[in-house]
Amino acid sequence: MTTMTERTYGFTDLPRLMALMTGAEKHGPAATSTLDALWVLYDRVLRVGPERLDDPERDRFLLSKGHGPMAYYAVLAAKGFLPLEWLPGFGSYDSPLGHHPDRVLVPGAEIGSGSLGHGLPIAVGTALGLRAQGRPDPAVWVLIGDAELDEGSNHEAIAFAGPAGLDRLHTIVIDNSSASHARPGGIAARFEAAGWSADTVDGRDHEALHAAFTAPHPGRPRVVVARVEPKHAPAPSRT
Amino acid sequence: MDTMRERFAPVVTRLLDEDPRVAVVLAEIGRDGFAEAERRHPDRVVNVGIREQLLIGTGAGLALTGMRPVMHTFASFLVERPFEQVKLDLGHQDVGAVLVSAAASFDWPAGGYTHMAPGDVALLDTLDGWTVHVPGHPDEAEALLRHAVGAGKTKDDKVYVRLSVQSNECALAVDGQRFLTVREGRRGVVVAVGPMLDAVLAATEGLDVTVLYATTMRPFDAGALRRATEAAGTDVVLVEPYLAGTSTAAANDALADVPHRVLGLGVGRPKLRRYGQIEEHVTAHGLDAHSLRKSIADFLDTRINRPAVGPRLTPA
Predict the structure, then answer these.
(1) The whole model's pTM is what?
(2) Is the pLDDT of residue B310 over 70?
(3) Up-side HSE of residue A152: CA atoms within 13 Å toward CB?
(4) ipTM of the modeled complex
């Protein structure tokens, strides 16, 4: 369903695009933890495109978890935001593609990220700015990691956005069980306690992701917790 | 006379009325002054609660959508606590904002060290592209606030406005860029910053020195300092109402190609662990007229007896 000037790339092309950056044909779960959620968003949900980078009515996607951005760059390349020729230079001095994205250098990147816990507060301001300018249509999306939620700045934003009724704000939490201190179900519970609409889905199931991303949530911000394989193998039982 | 801070909310309220791009973000502090503005512009006056990381992040998000955010709280909670947000959410995202602080170095001495921020300007000095205004009178604060908000013609204009209850008796016609020449002499240049002017004028009464008045400290008006030293010589004293020496490097850079001396006076680094009154802290840091006179006169009197022609460092 993607129309491009040169050719169309699909989800199955993404490992090859990532390989242009990593030099490896196969990628572990950590490198691809965001891949499915990103693809479903860019392929089926976000109203964005390389031809409307400055369109005030575009949706905004803020990659807060700037670590491991190969999946993000691969999706942006597949969707025509940046040329494939950029990918092999990943991380080099002359490349716009760093190990953490820079919005000034990467077409389509709404924010520069890398230091954790900055995206959600900026997304709150973005949603407020669109509302103040009478633009109810653009949706604001921010993607964070489960361990990124350790950062207290997220909780300032979560606690504000619910009572403020920022219903154009959407958060995706990629949960690969990488937080050192966490309780089962704790992620969604914290958002729900602040008044968010919350759902937890299989982060590899494209239909489940799409359904969760497009479910109505009138008057409330929305969080989708996308569960993927644990980053670290489970610790052996001590019993 | 009203205070700079009492002037802040009415001025910005008018700017909210005039310019639909302007938005105010607060973190509880200062909210009362914006009650009427909040009724008139509920979407452009945002109080995020006691959340200073969110204060800056929210302003950054507003700026990303094309608005001109004005963020306000005490200096310690505006610049120091969320410093990484100032560095990344504004600077690294390449968006502009106006940060307006209150409480300054020790406006509320009874509140103690937690509410003092003498290091705010020095911290911003570690970053690129910040304009820093230090008004010395409520009228100047009004002019500089208007200048700061209006400066958002290019969207990455980052401006810090440092409000204080310390104030000079009279306002001067500040333009948001240049130092003003208040007095001319031949034995040195004293740069009085913002609220320090009255004390500096009293301290230098009868001394043969040029007094420059500075309310915009970044960018530093190197040209004005150089011109002043042509007649007054290159002994320079900076009197700043925040951390002593904050602008010493800027003055040195302005005079890099001529022999010169710089004395940086301001708020001392050691913690006093004292409460009390503003005047007591002014005196404790040597910023009252009597102490300033002694520091300035001692500095000018102890000039090194340099030979008229120094030893050559390079062969002829």
Answers:
(1) 0.94
(2) no
(3) 6
(4) 0.94
